[in-house]
């Protein structure tokens, strides 16, 4: 389960930034409609919150690296997933002093639609970083590209927010371990308990998350 017990400060920071919205939103890479949307890219507008997020992410990594059970594998690079994961990966890299690479999403360069930006050695392991995960499809594609085109391996994925729609199980099927700082259900529970959101919005969102997870077998 997401390591979110002590990270509800993130829920408040995102709320204060206006990053949490309720309505009818098309999310992910499909036409799936969600009653709740969280724009974590707005963290760049709060440098203190972004720096705190990087610190918490680094602490989570260090804690897991010292565990015998469910450890985080050794890695030599961090890789931000464009575009939402780039600012988080950059902040994490600066905090942890671990070099960073990323898959450049340009349309064309020397006949290639994608390429890996940054210095690396074939055979190295990278820690994938993204702002949030919904289905995990984009993360799985990035991991496959890194392996096929750069000889880089992915074992662990670190995200700030897990929408808890079954991505953990989907990524596990690819051999990836998902680590999240905060879960969407915990965020909604906190916002509801704090009187910041309407009960109707809360109920619709929780029902949506649980139904999506059930569809994916999570």
Structure keywords:
single chain; 218 residues; alpha/beta; Rossmann fold; 6-stranded mixed beta sheet; two-stranded antiparallel ribbon; globular
Overview of this protein structure:
A hairpin with a 6-residue loop joins strand 1 (20-26) and strand 2 (33-38). The protein contains seven helices and eight strands, in the order H-E-E-H-E-H-E-E-E-H-E-H-E-H-H. It has a single domain (8-215), classed as 3-Layer(aba) Sandwich (Rossmann fold). The chain has helices at 8-16, 47-65, 84-96, 137-150, 167-173, 184-193, 199-215, and strands at residues 20-26, 33-38, 77-80, 100-104, 115-117, 125-133, 153-162, 177-183. The longest helix is centred in the first third of the chain and has 19 residues, at 47-65. It has 218 residues and is of the alpha/beta class.
């Amino acid at each position: 389960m997401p390591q979110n017990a002590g990270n509800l400060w993130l829920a408040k920071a995102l709320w204060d930034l206006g990053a949490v919205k309720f309505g009818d939103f098309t999310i992910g890479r499909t036409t799936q409609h969600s009653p709740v949307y969280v724009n974590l890219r707005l963290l760049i507008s709060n440098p203190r919150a972004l720096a705190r997020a990087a610190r918490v992410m680094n602490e989570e990594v260090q804690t897991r690296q010292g565990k015998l059970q469910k450890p985080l594998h050794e890695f030599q690079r961090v890789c931000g997933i464009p575009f939402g994961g780039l600012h988080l990966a950059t902040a994490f890299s600066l905090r942890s002093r671990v070099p960073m690479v990323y898959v450049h999403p340009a349309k064309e360069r020397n006949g290639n639609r994608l390429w890996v930006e940054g210095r690396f050695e074939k055979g190295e392991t990278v820690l994938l970083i993204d702002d949030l995960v919904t289905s995990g499809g984009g993360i799985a594609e990035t991991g496959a590209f890194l392996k096929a085109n750069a000889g880089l391996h992915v074992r662990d994925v670190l995200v700030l927010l897990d929408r808890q729609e079954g991505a953990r199980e989907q990524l596990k099927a690819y051999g990836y371990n998902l680590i999240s700082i905060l879960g969407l259900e915990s965020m909604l529970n906190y916002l509801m308990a704090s009187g910041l959101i309407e009960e109707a919005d809360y109920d619709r969102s929780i029902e949506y998350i649980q139904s999506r997870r059930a569809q994916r077998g999570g």
